[in-house]
Amino acid sequence: MTEEIIIAGFGGQGVLSMGKIIAYSGIMENMEVSWMPSYGPEIRGGTANVTVIVSDKRISSPILQRYDTAIILNQQSMDKFEEMVKPGGTLIYDPSGISRKPQRTDISIYAVPATEEAAAMNATKIANMLLLGAFIKLRPALVLDKVLLGLKKSLPERHHKLLPLNEQALRRGMELVG
Asked: 2-176: what fold?
């Protein structure tokens, strides 16, 4: 099993940290992992994306042209990465940052109102965890218990008080996609 993922949005939306959590989760499951971030010098507010590969086999290259899953947080990223999802793949997106909905008919598409849901939970910074929860439910490359361990590993200890809220967001994200 190999899952090739692109997560893309603006800096400050938790794109890179979401990728890091997936990578740590894969490590917790004794999988091979590649985490390759890409962002402009401005970081917060500029475009950011991260390619993550988790696999039960050796990963030959972290550089990909096509992805099994795309998690998209803004229109600029939708324009760039929608066509790079492999036929039969999955596109998960937050509609609050999107003005043109995805057009593909050969992939599974899920709109997850993460920004709206995070606001309803009075915790705007957890929108990325809602999207990650949706990913866990839709693409069973990782299990929730290992994602929670990956989350704990990736968060600085001073933020561990936020682990219950992040777990709640992961579970709610799973609910949002059925």
From this structure: Pyruvate-ferredoxin Oxidoreductase; domain 3 (3.40.920)
**Bridge pairing between strands 108-111 and 67-72:** unpaired
- Residues 51-106 pLDDT 10s: 999 999 999 888 899 999 999 999 999 999 999 999 999 999 999 989 999 999 99
pLDDT value for 46:
66
Reading the block at residue 118, the tokens are 């995070």
- Output phi, psi for 54, to 5 deg: -125, 135
The CA R_g of the chain, rounded to the nearest whole Å, is: 15
Return the axis-axis angle of helices 144-154 and 163-176, rounded to nearest 10°.
140
Is the pLDDT at 38 greater than 90, yes or no?
A: no
- Per-residue tokens: 158: 């001073």
> If DSSP codes are grouped into helix, strand and coil, which group holds residue 143?
coil
Extents of the domains making up the chain:
2-176
